[in-house]
Amino acid sequence: GQQVMQIPQYQHVQEGEDFTTYCNSSTTLSNIQWYKQRPGGHPVFLIQLVKSGEVKKQKRLTFQFGEAKKNSSLHITATQTTDVGTYFCAANTGGFKTIFGAGTRLFVKA
Amino acid sequence: DSGVTQTPKHLITATGQRVTLRCSPRSGDLSVYWYQQSLDQGLQFLIQYYNGEERAKGNILERFSAQQFPDLHSELNLSSLELGDSALYFCASSVGQGNGYTFGSGTRLTVV
Question: In terms of Cα–Cα distance, which of A23, A7, A4 is closest to A99?
Answer without folding.
Answer: A4
